[in-house]
Amino acid sequence: MFNSDARSGPTSKIVSGVFWSYLSFICGKGLSFVTTIILARLLLPEEFGVMGYCLIIIQYLDIINSAGIDGALISRRDHIEEAANAAFLGNIALGCVTFIISWIAAPATANFFKAPEVTLTLRVLALSLPISGLGMVPDALIQRSLRFRTKMIPEISRNLTKGLSSVILALAGFGVWSLVWGQIIGGLTGTLLAWLLAGWKPTRRYNAEATRSILKFGFHIIILDFAGAFRNNVDYILVGRILGASALGYYTMAYRIPELFINSLNYVIGRVSFPTLAAMQADHERMRSFYFTYIRYLSTFIFPVGVGIALTAPVFIPAFLSSTWNFAIAPTSLISMALTISAIGFVPGVLYKAMGRPEILNRLGLIKILIAVAVLWYSTRWGIIGVAAGQIIIGMISVTLDTLVANWIMHYQLWQLIKAILPSFSASIVMGLSLIALNKIFTLNDMGGFLIMVIFGIVVYFATVFIISRSTVTQGLAVLRQVLARPQIAS
Description:
By secondary structure, the chain is mainly α. The protein folds into 2 domains: 1-229, no CATH class; 244-491, no CATH class. It is built from 19 helices and no strands. It has helices at residues 10-42, 45-66, 69-75, 80-113, 118-125, 128-134, 136-144, 148-171, 176-198, 208-243, 245-279, 284-321, 329-354, 358-379, 383-410, 414-442, 447-468, 470-474, 476-489. Helix 2 runs antiparallel to helix 10, helix 2 crosses helix 11 (245-279) and helix 13 (329-354) packs parallel to helix 15 (383-410).
């Protein structure tokens, strides 16, 4: 039941898996983006803020809820059925436990964020925890058998039903409850489809070693994920606690827009590059060469997107989200620049994992958490604009740390890093100045104007890159083919 199809070689499955997982990822982000635009026109910032309070807690409880059990099951090589049974029972138990925790913790959470409405909202939203827990084993078994095309169905259906439900309920005047019930309905849809498509049923078969292995793996994942979740949510916690629900709603929207594009590009390019770097561990020179190629082409895509979002936010937000969200314009521009800077620090992280040195990532992560808490706490005195500006400072410090550590490992010269990012950096500056001039001349302030700015920016950027560094453009497709082909050699 759990064996992959022997008629397909591992290489064809990997290539197919990459395609379908990326297609699923892009479709999911696209649906999320469209839904965000629609809901922003129907709901108030305060309602997004209340949901934001609840999602902060749910994210931590979801770490306990999954406990890395799905990852342990995917990596398991023997006693699969027994491990699946143990994982299923574990997910049921953890789903019940996290629901009870959320029910008990809801009043304290409401007091912490000074928002009484959070108590009931969080308790109802917590229904999503046992629902998602029930779907983890079938979902993991689909992944384990490399059936990524099949996995697309519950993932896209989850996002689609979540978005449609939220929009319909928002139109009916349900306010924040449209977000809550949309989350629950989407989770229920994904779980039901995972069960239907996995072709698995629990049995009574039991193996003590498999159970211990699942639990041990999960314990380590919980610790690692908690640290990552705190690092990713410290700004939301501080904004929500100190500045209130309305500020959190604006900040959430300001962060979500650049995050959908910049972090998504980081994710996709990183997923492709990780196995390539891992395959080069023994060849230091090839790894160094690919490392700078990675930075070069990452910056080629990330820099213009970041600058473009920062400069088009004053047109995009009132045109697409409505003038209600104008207070999010400045934070969106600042966060876009912060994520653009931080993107360069993402590259060393992939390098550390590829070299089998995740402890470096964890140690740097601890330092970055301390820096982030200090900077963001201090910056809250200037509101969400101050917090967004603080993200730029954090990004600059983080990239500096990552660059120094990567230099210690790779032994490269600073000019090599500058040379790698200079074409895209220069072209992004030219594009940015051109967009500013275009908007000054024509005063673009509607949806049509936004589309003109996007098209104009793309043309100016790639024309400038071609003039400054023709090889960056002419070799781009060849490099992408090389990245996709190299992991196949190891198979």
